UniProtKB/TrEMBL annotation:
One of its GO terms (cellular component) is extracellular region. Residues 1-27 form the signal peptide. This is Purple acid phosphatase. Homodimer. PANTHER family: INACTIVE PURPLE ACID PHOSPHATASE 1-RELATED, PURPLE ACID PHOSPHATASE-RELATED. Belongs to the metallophosphoesterase superfamily. Purple acid phosphatase family. Keywords: Glycoprotein, Hydrolase, Secreted, Signal, Zinc. One of its GO terms (molecular function) is acid phosphatase activity.
Length: 604
């Protein structure tokens, strides 16, 4: 039996880009880069074609991201012409890995990190052969070049390559990600840099705001192409993810503000520093104070410059991110419950995502869960045999865990591994529920990516199950026995809330203000973080109280041990569109309801 907010059960192999603590349905589309047939690319350089990028050096004043302006000319312009951003700048066949190279070089063996059509901001490009384009770049530890292609995405021909562009310090420490530690008074800080252990010593310099600072060392990990399970992650989608550093800040005072900087001491004695950040330490378990939690899934990334979005896939991501940033002073911890990036094997996109959410992850704990787009790959041990991870097979992010945050106990499952009765994960889930001290943590929350409870999604409706196959058959008795207040899911890209329910039956007719003893668990689908929306079944699901075919996120606010507020907000405007409250004392948690008390006797 475990205690506190420690890791429990299995922590599946590594979480490199997100140390998410403590250590089927359809595939929902492909990464936009998958639409480029890079293996069909031909070199067809034209003497009269050119492309120029400026400025040549980015981030000289510490800026990241930075805008680059391209000017280009083609003697044979077409509306199918497009520009790819390549990093590293040298993307010829000479750099190909033996597994990534294509027969009949000089084919290309690496996908661009982003792309845009040549006429995107130059509508007369086809008539004049001249155009310009502005693209937003983040520091990704290498230089960049820009390539003009004709032939569209399916038969690309390389006609011109630009000068190289680089950041002033491409190795700089970037994109800090906070997460709850193994205990309530520990915070992990994970970041990315270009400094390996052979060139620098990584550390965090931190302390209470305005007080003396200390330094804590950081560990360093990385991965290589052979860690991936298949294409495109192991072939055209591969890109060196840099070095991932993690430090553990311990013995924090509850609710205290700390400042920190990422540091690297080079072996020549030089120090490299990040900007200064700050966070507020977690409350003591059971502490009676206002605690605010945001939960959503399936966000992914989008590009402010309009690139990489020709398939209209994740347009809600930027709105969701913006709403969280704008309201960050009213958020204490975030749970992103699977389908994090939708990189789908294009490893460069993990950097793009960590840059997108860095204003959040650098200030509050950002906890992640495993989804199908992080884990699933045939023959890799995942419960589902799909190729949804694009060959990543959990290398970039994979975990299950429990954590306490003040008056909350969170039990986070991994739906890409078997959860049914008799499995290791089933035992972990039950221990997580059973070990919660409901006097300290009255609010017991279950989190999983796939819908193990209830959903009116069209594909679940077509199956007649209204759940992931075999989803709730084993778990519903645990939810009822241990009086789980709310279960959250992603995977289905919309919002839906059920009544308090058990075995398909609503156990409470109330819809917005729940009082007194527990009746049944409320199930919430919060998969509208940003990826393409999913339709509802036309069938009448009587247990469903609220549905919304839109992008949004959910928020829990615990005012004290007896009062909890749930809110659903749209990403478009941040306003509340659905809500309910729970008012429940400790004696109400002890009270019996259907199937959650042992038999009693009148014998004295």
């Amino acid at each position: 039996m475990f205690q506190g907010s420690g890791l429990e059960g299995m922590i599946l192999p590594v979480i490199l880009l997100f140390l998410a603590t403590l250590q089927e349905a359809s595939s929902h589309g492909d990464n936009p880069l998958a639409g480029i047939a890079i293996h069909e690319a031909r070199f067809a350089l034209e003497e009269s074609a050119f492309i120029k990028a400026s400025p040549g050096v980015l981030g000289a004043q510490g800026g990241n991201p930075e805008w680059v302006t391209l000017s280009f000319t083609s003697a044979n312009p077409s509306n199918d012409d497009w520009i790819g951003v390549f990093s590293p700048a040298d993307f010829s066949a000479a750099i190909c890995d033996s597994e990534g190279s294509m027969a009949g070089a000089p084919f290309l063996c690496t996908a661009p990190i982003k792309f845009q059509y040549a006429n995107y901001s130059s509508p007369r490009y086809k008539a004049t052969g001249k155009g310009s384009l502005r693209l937003l770049l983040i520091n990704q530890r290498s230089d960049f070049s820009f390539a003009l292609f004709s032939g569209g995405l399916s038969k690309p021909k390389l006609v011109a390559v630009s000068n190289k562009v680089t950041f002033a310090n491409p190795n700089a420490p970037l994109y800090p990600r906070l997460a709850q530690g193994k205990t309530w008074n520990e915070m992990t800080v994970t970041w990315t840099s270009g400094y390996g252990i052979s060139s620098a010593e990584p550390f965090i310099e931190w302390g209470q705001k305005g007080d003396v600072r200390v330094r804590s060392p950081a560990g360093t990990l990385t991965i290589d192409r052979s860690s991936m399970c298949g294409p495109p992650a192991r072939t055209v989608g591969w890109r060196d993810p840099g070095f991932i550093h993690t430090s553990f800040l311990k013995e924090l005072w509850p609710n205290t503000v700390y400042t920190y900087k990422l540091g690297h001491k080079l072996f020549n004695g030089t120090y490299i520093w990040s900007p200064e950040y700050q966070f507020k330490a977690s409350p003591y378990p059971g502490q009676d104070s206002v605690q605010r939690v945001v939960i959503f899934g399936d966000m992914g990334k989008d590009e402010p410059d309009g690139s990489n979005v020709y398939n209209n896939y994740q347009h809600g991501a930027l709105n969701t991110t913006k709403q969280l940033i704008d309201d960050l002073k009213n958020i204490d911890i975030v749970f992103h419950i699977g389908d994090i990036v939708y990189a789908n094997g294009y490893i460069s996109q993990w950097d793009q995502f960590t840059a997108q959410v860095a204003p959040i992850t650098s200030k509050v704990p950002y906890m992640v869960a495993s989804g199908n787009h992080e884990r699933d790959w045939p023959g890799s041990g995942s419960f589902y045999g799909t190729k949804d991870s694009g060959g990543e097979c959990g290398v970039m992010a994979e975990t299950m865990y429990s954590t306490d945050y003040g008056m909350f106990r969170f039990c986070v499952a991994d739906t890409e591994h078997d959860w049914r009765e008799g499995t290791e994960q089933y035992e972990f889930i039950e221990r997580c529920f059973a070990s919660a001290d409901r006097r300290k943590q009255p609010w017991l929350i279950f989190i999983a990516h796939r819908v193990l409870g209830y959903s009116s999604a069209s594909w679940y409706g077509a199956q007649g199950s209204f759940e992931e196959p075999m989803g709730r058959e084993s778990l519903q008795k645990l939810w009822q026995k241990y009086k789980v207040d709310i279960a959250f899911y992603g995977h289905v890209h919309n919002y839906e809330r059920t009544c308090p329910i058990y075995q398909n039956i609503c156990l409470d007719k109330e819809k917005h203000n729940y009082k007194g003893p527990f009746n049944g668990t409320i199930h919430v689908v919060a998969g509208g973080g940003g990826s393409g929306l999913a339709d509802f079944t036309p069938l009448n699901t009587t247990w469903s109280l609220f549905k919304d075919h839109d992008y949004g996120f959910t928020k829990l606010t615990a005012f004290d041990h007896s009062n909890l507020l749930f809110e659903y907000k749209k990403s478009s405007d941040g306003k509340v569109y659905d809500s309910f409250t729970i008012n429940r004392d400790y004696r109400d948690i002890l009270a019996c309801s259907v199937d959650n008390c042992s038999p009693t006797t009148l014998a004295s």
